[in-house]
Design brief:
Blueprint lengths: L2 H21 L10 H7 L5 H28 L7 H25 L10 H28 L1
Helix pairs in contact: 1-3, 1-5, 2-3, 4-5
């Protein structure tokens, strides 16, 4: 496994996914303030919550990208677009299952409702994340 490649791929993929999360409502998708939701789990102060949420969101993205790279390195698929989509789909199922639990645990629950459109948006975001991780990680490995 190439850890530095996984970190770069995770940062790029999380950046793309974050843009989709915040542009999505302009395309008819539900509003889903992930950075605010993550940050406000630890503080009410918005000036602290958003930077903290951003760090947490990107750290989670890097950890998932590293997990993808580790699995690819152990022979479970490879860093190609089909495997990126497959891992993104699995990741999406996990995120969809965990979000309601996270909302119940949240000390200041945000106004996120689990509608079919929310679920579809979450799956699309994670498919894009998986695809981006695979393409970036694969390109970095190929370039040596």
């Amino acid at each position: 496994m190439d850890l530095s490649g996984a970190v770069v791929a995770g940062l790029v993929a999380t950046s793309i996914m974050t843009v989709l999360i915040y542009v999505g409502p302009k395309m008819g998708m539900p509003r889903m303030d992930m950075l605010g939701m993550l940050g406000t789990m630890f503080t009410q102060k918005r000036a602290v919550a958003y930077p903290l949420g951003t760090v947490l969101h990107f750290a989670i993205g890097v950890l998932f990208a590293a997990a993808y790279a580790l699995l690819w390195g152990r022979g479970l698929g490879d860093a190609t677009w089909p495997w990126g989509l497959a891992f993104g789909a699995a990741h999406g199922v996990i995120a969809i299952a965990v979000l309601p639990l996270m909302l119940r645990m949240h000390p200041r629950p945000p106004g996120i409702r689990m509608t079919p459109l929310t679920v579809a948006g979450m799956m699309m975001g994670h498919l894009v994340f998986g695809l981006a991780v695979a393409l970036v990680y694969g390109a970095l490995k190929a370039s040596g």
